[in-house]
Amino acid sequence: MARVRRSRVPRVWRWVIGVTLGGLTIGLGFFGWAAWAWFTITVDTTGQVDFDQPVAIPPLAQSRVVDGERTFDLTAQTGTSNFGRGDTPTWGINGDYLAPTLRATRGEQVRMRVRNDLPETTSMHWHGMHLPAQMDGGPHQPIAPGDTWEPYWTIDQSAATLWYHPHPHGDTAEHIYRGVAGMFILDDPAEDSLDLPDRYGVDDIPLIVQDKKFNTDGTLNENHSTFQSAGVTGDTVLVNGTVDPYLAVSTERVRLRLLNASNTRPYNFAFADNRDFDMIASDGGLLAEPLPVNHIQLSPGERAEIIVRMEPGERVVLRSGPSDSGARMAGGADRLDIIELRAAPSLTPAPDLPEKLMDQPRLDPADASKFRSFDLSGFSINGQGMDMNRIDHTVTLGDTEIWEVTNVDGGSHNFHVHDVQFRVLDINGHPPPPQLEGQKDTIWIRPQETVRLIMRFTDYTSTSAPYMFHCHTLRHEDLDMMGQFLVVEPTWDGNLPDAFTVGPATTDDRLPGLSNHQH
Ligand code: C2O
Ligand code: CU
Ligand code: CU
Fold first, then answer.
1. Residues 193-212 pLDDT 10s
2. CB within 8 A of 43, min separation 6: which ones?
3. Labelling 247: which of 31, 57, 354, 494 has CA 20 to 30 A away?
4. Residues lining ligand 3 (ion), CB within 5 A?
């Protein structure tokens, strides 16, 4: 009987070839999918936005002065919003979406009564604020559903556009995306003496810029595509929660307080006619003098104040163009129409801009007593993810330090430090551009770029409550791209507690040594 000869290829090789061909097919498929994602991810809405809705102006938060403290009541709650797609479930503070604008003056004592009526634990962080770590509202100060957290501190920094938002460990992106975020405007008598537009909602306008993705049923789509490691980007821009927004301008000059409150996306703002405008402030307050520019780039968490000059009757669109970040999958190649400015047929005259604004204190690198370096890569900083029970750095009160931060992997990273406003010493060894010369708390870091920041830590110490530093690309932050530092007394003995979880400060549970007032 003839033997049936099967293939001469040994069985193991047949297996190897099969797996290789299969792998190649899958690999090519994946490559094709990735390439398709790369080419189709960009969004261009220029010329396609109707601008038929007056932009909402967040109300100023009500407050009352009790025992010398300006007290605000804030309730995080669920709600329903209309973004032109039926009912969209959203979250907000004292309302359905976003939050009232907080406003306080340098020297004032403030107290926040933050109630959590959300179905999940959250927290409330005062981004850009110099304050005790126990009051900072980071991951160590969670607020359980039904609880009220009551931090208090004294405003002790220059006039600035800050903001506030949740910071619960691992859930910050979702909570902000669903709508919990607001502006926190600080006033300062030194700023009041300058003749700047300052009538809130008239010639001094907050612009909270966010991009959203919607499901067909009108709900917010929180899912990012497989290739968007930085998180979700959207094709719909909301300004103060308004879709298709326009701003009616009634004065010759209008001051816009721009906040990038998006999860991921960097914006590169410019006007459609490429006009010049004046930048007057960065994250931490006024620049030394008005800076004429025609575009301004803001990564998530960054702010800028600009003054725009308008002619009677004209209309001009504020747009966002591609950023110089290379963050294509994070929306860095997109073109978006943001808001239309519509000037009335006759405009109230506005005085010329002051030539000088504010000389903020400079820090001398020669005074720096400590140098630290931070490599941003993947979802980690210096190769480590956030550990709530690990202190990464201990800073001595009163010290000036230089922090060198590098975007090692080319991902979509920025860097935010709690408690302080820093100055940019240099970027890749070169002096920073004038937009980055003022006080900052968040800075975009381009691929392979190294920035050196100088900062000084004053006033508040604790060996149990840390401050955070992190990437403000919210998905990265939630995936533990964050670290912690303590600010300690020069006499500190080096002992640390076993755990750093500091519960909420409530009226009954006073944190010792922080306040000299009692109710
Ligand atoms: Cu805007 Cu640590 O936050
Ligand atoms: Cu912050
Ligand atoms: Cu990052």
1. 999 999 999 999 999 999 99
2. 233, 235, 331, 334, 335, 336
3. 354
4. 413, 471, 473, 476
